[in-house]
Amino acid sequence: MSFPDDRTGEPLLEVDDAQVCFYTRGGVVQAVRGVTFAVHRGETLGLVGESGSGKSVTALAVLGLLQPPGRVTGGDIRWKGRSLVGRAGLKRARRIRGKEMAVVFQDPMTSLNPLFPVRSQIAEVLRHHLGMSRREAEERVVELLDLVGIPAPRQRAGAYPHELSGGQRQRVLIAMALACEPELLIADEPTTALDVTIQAQILELIHEIQQRLGLAVLLITHDLGVVAGVCRRVAVMYGGKIMEMGGADEVFERPAHPYTAGLLRSTPRLDVVRPRLVGIDGLPPNMTAPPPGCPFQPRCDRATSACETMPALRPDGDRREVACWHALGREGIDATGVAGQPVA
Amino acid sequence: MGRFALRRAAFGIVVMFLVTVVVFVTTRMIGDPANTLLPLTATHEQRVAFTHQLGLDRPILTQFVHYLGNVSHLDFGNSLLQSRPALNIVLDRLPNTFELVGFGLAIAILFAIPLGVLAALKPGSLVDKATVVVSLSGLSVAQVWLGLLLILVFAAELKVLPSAGIGGIDHLILPGLTLAFPALGRLVMLTRSTMIDELNTQYVQTARAKGIPEIRVVGLHALRNAAIPILTLSGWELIRALAGFSVVVETVFAWPGVGYLAFQSIQQNDVILLQAIVTVMGFLIVAINVGLDVVFKVIDRRVELA
Amino acid sequence: MTTVGADAAVVRPNLLRLRLQDLGASLRSAIGELLHDRAGLFGLVVVLALILIAIFAPLIAPQNPSAQSLLDRLEPPFKSWSHPLGTDPLGRDELSRLIYGSRISLEVGALVVAIAGTTGTILGLISGYFGGIVDSIVMRAVDTQIAFPGLLLALLIIAVIGPSLKAIVIVLSIDGWMVYARVTRGITASLRQEPYVEAAEIVGCRSRRVIFRHILPNLASPVLTLGVLEFARIILAEAALSFLGLGIQPPSVSWGLMLSDGADYLFSAWWVVSLPGIAIALVVLGINLFASWLRIVSDPHARDKRFAASARVGGAAMT
């Protein structure tokens, strides 16, 4: 399957060998170590990784929301060609935040200010970026609440956050993000803090809105299932680097990187009977002293001495890139989740 | 809301009653009241007359009822040494105490909040460190010593400000500062830590993510939430000052307020006057307490609605 | 514990060893923290110094603190070896008075913290554990007494019963138990809801066992820290009361009393007031710093918070 329509024209967002470090008392944490990807107009990219992989930090860096002791220490991040790094870049980032690029964070229960009604929190973005009057903003708020599926939007607009459920609050946050019709929506673990049933609803909402408005979406998550529902492309991160990137369907069907394969293997499945859950042996790397070369090397069963040097992301087939000396071939994984068996 | 106010008012009245009981018990039931309430120079005849006059020879419960009746009319009897109604003496001096406490608290709040906010915005910076130093100093110095020190420096050495008494604003500065300093210390510490917590919250992160200028994020989103505990502590500081800490400061500076009056009445063994002071101030404090409870309930809607 | 049998015998010694290891590890980390945290170190030094000086006062003080000498009155400090810190208006040696004054501060502080702390903690514990009417009554009492005009009532009481060490201990204890009760009750009540406490009760542990085994250890740290902070506050309160003439009476020595002695000679003999003032400030500061270090070290939550503050987005760095 090819997707030329997803990637036409200049990219909206370019992350170019970005590096982010945190200077803490316990040492320098190298959270992001050379990440490169791009998001085009209308494209949906999933950034997948476990805790500590650096995916959320990447999002914060893109948004210019890194607080000390964190800093972008290398590479560049560009929005429509203009840099978002450095003093001028951060100013630029603040101007486009909430307007051209918007974000929805993980925990809806704490993401809204408890002292202000929902309406004023959404109106705040409208009035700041678009200069709307109070009346105009309030009308638009009702429209937005309707868009995200809040019942009786006009009445609910005056509600305080604690009067809404988790799912509703997340919808409000999405409405707030969409208020100024951004071109890119970054969603950082938007469903992790929600019930499973609500998760599905929210993902459905994001998918629907993306289709309707032609938004680009950067979805950050540790949950492969979430990516599969919403994203056309996926990038797998580990230890601050991207291990593999390509079309979501292809990557999940035929993972090229051993880590991706491991992730897929360890996902519990309802349709296959397995004697026990499979995990990936070993522990995530210590980011204050990351191993040289490939970060996955200590846990990889295909590792050799060559892996002491980090391989660059190299093309591997159609629209796919892998950073591995020993990428899995065309074998893919079978229904029992064992790598190395030819696909039927 | 109204129900809450009513309950707090009822509670307040109960406390006032208890204050009266405690004052009564202390002055009438410990030792020989005649000894307590009369100056030491009183003769035996005077004691007998006094005892009878005050009804100290009647059963204790009768005395109490009688006393309660008087107190509800705010009739505390005449001061032993000044031969005026004790109540009037207290009321004369009350405005001075208000002036001092008001000024002191105003200084404390006016300096504490900006300092605390700045310290929270730049943790580890010079401002932050200075703030912590100021705050710790405020908590550690004895007000007595601070007052005396200020007098020594500004009145004796520099001869810039007067050392005692009431007058224009120059008389207000030193005692006001002395009163303010410990409160400043506590308020700054609270402001700083509350703001740090606020700046770490998810909703402040969300506000930043909306692209709003940082000033608004701090001033509106963070500070509004932080204001609740800060205001609560300020109210508490007000009560503390009135509940007795003004005594020390007023005495050091011979500031003619209720606190100094209390000190003088102890020195002169005028227990009737002291009774009046304690009861009146007690009532005042309870009233302020209840008032603040109600006000804070209104401000903290979140708690109310939840 | 009847069912586990032989396994229990094997398990229990290991638990003990683990506990000791835990203790050792946390002690080592505490000391490490302390050396790094110079403020906390200063606090600890001050507290220890205070205790030692107070205990060994008779051995350390060069002179009898009450020995008057009109010949030597109002001698400035640093002038002679016999009176290194000068003398007061009655010719008494300042250094010795400072040293002996520490005894009073320590004594009053320790007594009040012990009395008020024990009373308040027990009441808070009962209130929080048993809930219901008991809780209502105790908390109502706390609220009521907090609403009282503390210092003023103290003045009245002391005016009636006469000033003395006993008087201020009584008055400060009466005024001081509420905060312990509130804190203890809060912790106890929330612990009561913890699953492991519920489990203990279901298994059939008697209340007393539950309290001692599960609740008390969790109370130790906050109550201890509170006690230390209160100690500092008591020292300041004693100084204020003694200054007003309502506390320690001569011939006993207290820093507050020294302040009032010096007030009259403020302009001519600045050291009489300044020395006790500095002593109070140093001691109270040290105790406050010690208390804040204590809290961070003994309460794992506060410790995490401290690291979180410095590695604030380090938390986000983990996702």
Compact summary:
The complex is a heterotrimer of chains A (344), B (306) and C (319). Chain A is an alpha/beta fold and 344 residues long. Chain A has ten helices and twelve strands.
Description:
The complex is a heterotrimer of chains A (344), B (306) and C (319). Chain A is of the alpha/beta class. Helices cover 30% and strands 22% of the residues of chain A. Chain B has helices at residues 2-29, 33-37, 44-53, 60-72, 86-121, 126-140, 143-157, 169-199, 202-209, 214-253, 258-267, 271-299, 301-305. The mean pLDDT of chain B is 83. Chain B is flat. Chain B is built from 13 helices and no strands. In chain B, helix 1 (2-29) runs antiparallel to helix 12 and helix 10 packs antiparallel against helix 12. Chain C has 319 residues and is an all-alpha fold. Chain C has 2 domains: 1-26; 37-318, MetI-like fold (Orthogonal Bundle), CATH 1.10.3720. Chain C has 12 helices and no strands. Chain C has helices at residues 6-36, 38-55, 57-60, 94-130, 132-146, 150-161, 165-192, 195-203, 207-243, 255-263, 270-298, 300-310. In chain C, helix 5 (132-146) packs across helix 7 (165-192) and helix 7 runs antiparallel to helix 9. Chain C is globular, with a radius of gyration of 24 Å. Chains A and B meet through helix 2 and helix 3 of A and helix 9, helix 10 and helix 13 of B.
Give the SSE map.
The complex is a heterotrimer of chains A (344), B (306) and C (319).
Chain A: E1 13-24, E2 27-39, E3 44-48, H1 55-63, E4 70-79, E5 82-83, H2 86-96, E6 101-104, H3 118-130, H4 134-147, H5 153-156, H6 166-178, E7 184-188, H7 196-213, E8 216-221, H8 224-230, E9 233-238, E10 241-247, H9 248-253, H10 258-266, E11 314-315, E12 321-322
Parallel strand pairs in A: 3-8, 3-9, 6-7, 7-8
Antiparallel strand pairs in A: 1-2, 1-4, 4-5, 9-10, 10-12, 11-12
Helix pairs in contact in A: 3-4, 3-6, 4-6, 6-7
Chain B: H1 2-29, H2 33-37, H3 44-53, H4 60-72, H5 86-121, H6 126-140, H7 143-157, H8 169-199, H9 202-209, H10 214-253, H11 258-267, H12 271-299, H13 301-305
Helix pairs in contact in B: 1-4, 1-12, 5-6, 5-8, 5-10, 5-12, 6-8, 7-8, 7-10, 8-10, 9-10, 10-11, 10-12, 11-12
Chain C: H1 6-36, H2 38-55, H3 57-60, H4 94-130, H5 132-146, H6 150-161, H7 165-192, H8 195-203, H9 207-243, H10 255-263, H11 270-298, H12 300-310
